[in-house]
Specification:
7-stranded mixed sheet, single chain, 7 helices, Metallo-beta-lactamase, Chain A, alpha/beta, 14 strands
Length: 246
């Protein structure tokens, strides 16, 4: 199983990074974790065929984490002419939020006939669900987004990717990371407190509590990006490939 970083930026595209999107490629499934506003652009940049995707799993409903879905649906309808189903798993209210954004960007598109079906699944706290062959568990975290926000564990083929989503510090991140092959953890700033987000210093102070094989920082803002080459923790880069199990 591999994970390709299609985007690891914050909401502001700091450092020229794409919005959050991770591509999980396993024999059982091909899915995307989050799909920010620029995600379709980054898929094309890094050679990922939108037709290959079985599902999208969303941590929360902010534009830099789900705002690219209307563009993907438009691409599926008019460019790739997708015919097989697409699954979107996310917090309660995901279907309605995606519909609202799609209607705002492309009026009348949502209700137009399509060749593919769009299936929505709801995450629930600490409950594993099957999403296109992967086991996905959401853990409620602290981040205001108009709907519940989750950290995620995605497992298939005996491997697990853990992802903090966006959140203030919570002990639940220790549960999310436990035993994971890869833990993607946000660090929006170096030390400046930002509501509903983690600082690098917070993550670094607790790194020994994360029982994961590898910890990689994501969602970095401008002030921590300026220091990234001096940090002892790994920092994600757009286009980076992680092969899990090697």
């Amino acid at each position: 199983m591999s994970l390709r970083v299609l985007g690891c930026g914050d909401a502001f595209g700091s450092g020229g990074r794409f919005h959050t999107c991770f591509y999980l490629d396993a024999p059982e499934t091909k899915l995307l974790i989050d799909f920010g506003a620029s995600a379709l652009v980054s898929m094309h940049r890094f050679g990922i065929d939108p037709r290959a995707i079985d599902a999208i799993v969303l941590s929360h409903l902010h534009g830099d984490h789900f705002g690219g879905i209307p563009f993907l649906l438009l691409d599926a309808a008019f460019i790739t002419r997708r015919t097989r189903p697409l699954i979107v798993a996310g917090p309660p209210g995901t279907r309605e939020r995606v519909r609202q954004v799609s209607d705002a960007l492309y009026p009348d598109f949502w209700d137009a006939p399509k060749r593919f079906t769009l299936e929505f699944l709801e995450l629930d706290d600490d409950r594993a669900i099957d999403v296109a062959g992967a086991s996905v568990t959401g853990y409620r975290v602290i981040h205001d987004s108009g709907a519940p926000s989750f950290a995620l564990r995605v497992s298939c083929g005996g491997r697990t990717v853990a992802y903090s989503g966006d959140t203030a510090w919570t002990e639940r991140l220790i549960d999310v990371a436990r035993g994971a092959d890869l833990f993607l953890c946000e660090a929006s700033s170096f030390e400046t407190a930002i509501p509903n987000h983690l600082t690098y210093q917070t993550v670094a102070a607790r790194r020994d509590q994360f029982n994961a094989s590898r910890i990689v920082l994501t969602h970095l803002g401008a002030n921590i990006l300026a220091l990234k080459d001096t940090l002892p923790l790994d920092v994600a880069e757009d286009g980076q490939l992680f092969v899990l199990g090697e």
